[in-house]
Design brief:
With 177 residues, this protein is of the alpha/beta class. The protein has eight helices and seven strands, in the order E-H-E-H-H-E-E-H-H-E-E-H-H-H-E. Helix 3 packs antiparallel against helix 5. The radius of gyration is 16 Å and the shape is globular.
Length: 177
Amino acid sequence: MKKWGLTGGIGTGKTFISKTFLKKGIPVFYADDEAKKLYADAEVLQQLREVFGEKVFENGKPDFRKLADLVFNNHDALEKLEAILHPRVMGMFEQWAEQQHSEIVIMESAILYEAHLEHYFDKVMVVNASVGKRIERIKRRNPELTEAEIMARINRQMSQEEKCALADEVIEHEEDW
């Protein structure tokens, strides 16, 4: 079985492209969605409390806005969060991949390179789009975000230029969804 990684910065159209692979019968594991499910895991919640305290919780549940504000502006905090989530997500991917009956499986992850996960894959594809197109898409999807917040998230990730240079394949995706 071949394992491919599909990545690209926020708003590049990874999910749109991944649906193209799904239509071709290639299973896709959505790392970001699976990571979100971990916020219901008691062990993860305990680790979040130990590392970040109650300031990232609201009524006993993680407050994603507070957590995002913290980690997108603090590299050390981001690394601590990733140390909690990334090993679990990769374990989930491996279990999922073993259950697939396909010659190829794909993991979609916005931060594949940032998390240093590229060595897990036989091929890494980067979805690319201009900054203007990305901002437009993100505003459409998350109208509550300001342009400054969007740019902070874009700038928090590795640049598209770096990702494209590292990729085995670049998929240009400027058209509208």
